[in-house]
Write a structure and sequence with these properties.
Layout (H helix, E strand, L loop, with lengths): L1 E6 L3 H12 L4 E8 L2 H11 L5 E6 L5 H11 L3 E4 L6 H11 L2 E4 L14 H4 L2 H7 L2 E4 L7 H12 L3 E11 L13 H8 L3 E5 L2 E5 L5 E6 L3 E7 L3 H9 L5 E7 L2 H12 L8 E3 L2 E3 L1 H8 L13 E12 L2 E12 H8 L3 H18 L7 E4 L6 H9 L4 E4 L7
Parallel strand pairs: 1-2, 1-4, 2-3, 4-5, 5-6, 6-17, 7-12
Antiparallel strand pairs: 7-15, 8-9, 8-12, 10-11, 11-12, 13-14, 15-16, 16-18
The chain binds NADP nicotinamide-adenine-dinucleotide phosphate.
Length: about 400
């Protein structure tokens, strides 16, 4: 049916490629393009021979002209951006120039400022509308499935949703003293930033890890979780009717936090360049180079993730509570696609989001967050492609 250009060849991209090959009716042809072509070739080597035709290319996605040349050569129906958030705008520019649909899993963040927000990408809305192409923002798990869950809850269970708590638990154990489950630089920038949530239309800022709760997660058990700033709060507060408060919590072990604090205290998480033997280096980028590659965690990670949303709102003037979540097993993911659950829970929704656009189920020119589309075909595809969801009408609540 269609062709996808996949940019990036890391942990998430690997799952996207596996899943596109499982859905060959939609993805007849894919091109894997990244900075290090050998990683693209390794993926091709592993997966070629099935119905989906695979090619590879080298591209520097910071360079719009290189991207335009690649897109004009391959002529994809969509570009799936699973490189890093720093490349979002250059890839969107190339999509505009070539009138090609766009999709990503993380919102734009400037390299020199650890601050992610949607304003840069929302600014493309009119130009995408005029070009007649769709940009789907945030089609991973969080953001991504959390937005689809919210749209589904709104469509089927509520007249208005007043409170959303997004809970992201990872009970996986990789056996290393310290490692991150996806790109270490992006991950540490996210968790060492100030926390924030939205209440009554305003952002409330907290110190990093200031707000802690303990939650008893289905199939995982009790975990410490901490309030973080997270990008989908910004769009959900606008797109879901009736929001009074929306928060995001992620679980961290005491061991992870102790290591992170120590690294912060010695300056290793800083993004300010320093002089080192005549060179400028960014401490956080150096730290990334010495930490285990997230893609290598697959074989050694055991345990499960549980990510979902608790909604409190009104239906027919009565207060109602609803919890939608997915539980994913690290080893099951590894057996299926050779990756741990964090890459899996991001890569599966990325493939599904792209398939929604290629099949025409989600076509509307402009720039949209995922909760602005009909959630039903996506929810169906989650069950089909490895991320089945569960629901509860009597969940424990977070105070
Ligand atoms: N929404 C969610 O739920 C969610 C969850 C986790 C991750 N994510 C997002 O998913 C994305 C990928 O994460 P990951 O863990 O797969 O990261 P990763 O393993 O570090 O992979 C990133 C890939 O992008 C490539 N790349 C980086 N800069 C590039 C450039 N200028 N030109 C071309 N390719 C470039 C890298 O190439 P090299 O191999 O040369 O380094 C690498 O192959 C990130 O944006 C992350 O924020 C989203």
């Amino acid at each position: 049916m269609g062709k996808a250009l996949i940019i990036g060849a890391g942990g998430v991209a690997s799952v996207v490629v596996h899943k596109c090959c499982q859905n060959s009716e939609v993805f007849e042809e894919i091109c894997i393009a990244s900075r290090t072509k050998s990683k693209c070739d390794a993926l091709k080597e592993k997966l070629q021979g099935g119905k989906t035709k695979i090619s590879t290319a080298k591209v520097n996605a910071d360079n719009v002209d290189e991207l335009i040349t690649l897109i004009n050569d391959f002529k994809p129906d969509i570009v799936i951006n699973v490189a890093l958030p720093y490349q979002d705008l250059t890839i969107m520019d190339a999509c505009l120039a070539t009138k090609t649909n766009y999709m990503d899993t993380a919102n734009y963040e400037p390299l020199d400022t650890a601050k992610f927000e949607y304003k840069w990408q929302w600014a493309y809305k009119k130009r995408f509308e005029e070009a007649g192409i769709t940009a789907l923002l945030g089609s991973g798990f969080d953001p991504g499935v959390t937005g689809v869950f919210s749209a589904y809850a709104m469509k089927h269970h509520f007249d208005e949703i007043n409170y959303i708590d997004i809970l992201d638990a990872n009970a996986g154990d990789h056996g290393y003293p310290f490692a991150t489950n996806f790109n270490p630089e992006i991950n540490i920038r996210e968790v060492s930033a100030k926390g924030s949530y939205i209440e009554n239309g305003k952002w409330v800022e907290t110190e990093p890890m200031e707000i802690k709760r303990v939650y008893n997660f289905p199939e995982i058990g009790e975990k410490d979780m901490y309030l973080l700033h997270h990008e989908e709060l910004e769009s959900l507060a606008i797109n879901i009717k009736g929001i009074k408060r929306i928060r995001f919590f992620m679980t961290f072990s005491q061991n992870y936090l102790t290591h992170l604090k120590c690294l912060e205290n010695v300056g290793m998480t800083s993004i300010e360049p320093i002089d080192y033997e005549g060179m400028k280096i960014v401490p956080l980028q150096f730290l990334k180079a010495v930490l285990p590659d997230p893609a290598s965690l697959g074989p050694r990670t055991v345990g499960k993730t549980n990510i979902g949303c608790i909604f409190i709102g009104k239906k027919d003037n009565k207060e109602k509570t609803y919890y939608l979540y997915n539980v994913c097993d690290h080893q099951e993911c590894y057996k299926e696609v050779g990756s741990q659950a964090i890459s899996y829970t991001t890569g599966v929704p990325a493939m599904i989001g792209a398939s929604m656009i290629i099949t025409g189920k989600w076509n509307k020119p402009g720039v949209y967050n995922i909760e602005e589309f009909d959630p039903d075909p996506f929810m169906e595809a989650l069950n089909k492609f490895g991320l089945p969801w569960k629901e509860s009408f009597t969940p424990d609540l977070v105070d």
